[in-house]
Amino acid sequence: MLERLKKSLLEAPVFKRGEYNYFIHPITDGVPEVRPELIREVTGHIVRIADLDADKIVTVEAMGIPIGTALSNICDIPMVIVRKRKYGLPGEIEVSQVTGYSKSQLFLNGINKGDRVVVVDDVISTGGTLLAVLKSLKIAGAVVKDIVVVIRRGDGVVRLREEGYDVKTMVDVKVDEKHVTSVTESANGLNNHNTTCAACK
């Protein structure tokens, strides 16, 4: 399972961003190209492992968008994109984000109190982005049904679990200064929660 994803990660180039070994991959960066068969493989796996009994899919600009869009189309669930710029709409929620290599603000719109959401994203390293997103969803009064991230590296999942959040991931990667050194499938168990996903009916 996830053979395209695993193979493409092992072939991903790596460069230094400060002290951070940064891998470049279509799922995390959109380069060199985002292949439809890779998005189908990833989205199909989300359908298998996620609780999709939700009112909205929440994802983060920019690289969560291809995954969130595909999932929204398959499951007929509206998508909300957490943006990196302010729009000034009524009820907009602003939170700070700190990652392994940057600091910025995130802005949430389109979530109402009581909305059941599934959060999807491309990668988790430190957990800074997801913690900011989850904070904004809590402020909005949303109910987080599930959190699914394609690629896990670093201790971000542990950090989120310490905050009380369960995060499902697809693959775990290890990266040194020159290569992605290993890619293993995450141990999530295939839970069939997708009672509202159109693809599962």
Brief write-up:
This protein is an alpha/beta fold and 201 residues long. It is built from six helices and ten strands, in the order αββααβαββββαβαββ.
Description:
It contains six helices and ten strands, in the order αββααβαββββαβαββ. It is of the alpha/beta class. The protein has one domain: Rossmann fold (3-Layer(aba) Sandwich), CATH 3.40.50. A six-stranded mixed β-sheet has the order 4-3-7-8-9-10, sandwiched between helices. The chain has a two-stranded antiparallel ribbon with strand order 1-2. A hairpin with a 4-residue loop joins strand 9 and strand 10. Helix 3 crosses helix 4 (64-75). The chain is globular, with a radius of gyration of 16 Å. Mean pLDDT is 92; it is low at 189-196.
Helix-strand layout with pairing:
Layout: H1 3-10, E1 14-17, E2 20-23, H2 26-29, H3 36-49, E3 56-60, H4 64-75, E4 79-82, E5 93-98, E6 103-108, E7 116-124, H5 128-140, E8 143-152, H6 156-162, E9 168-175, E10 180-185
Helix pairs in contact: 3-4
Main β sheet profile: 6 strands, mixed
Unreliable runs, pLDDT <50, ≥5 residues? 189-196
Task: Give the C-level CATH assignment.
Answer: Alpha Beta
Order of SSEs: HEEHHEHEEEEHEHEE
CATH third-tier fold name: Rossmann fold
What count of domains describes the coordinates?
Answer: 1
Strand order of the largest sheet: 4-3-7-8-9-10
Radius of gyration computed on alpha carbons: 16 Å
What characteristic shape results from the CA principal axes? globular
End-to-end C-alpha gap: 22 Å
Number of strand segments: 10
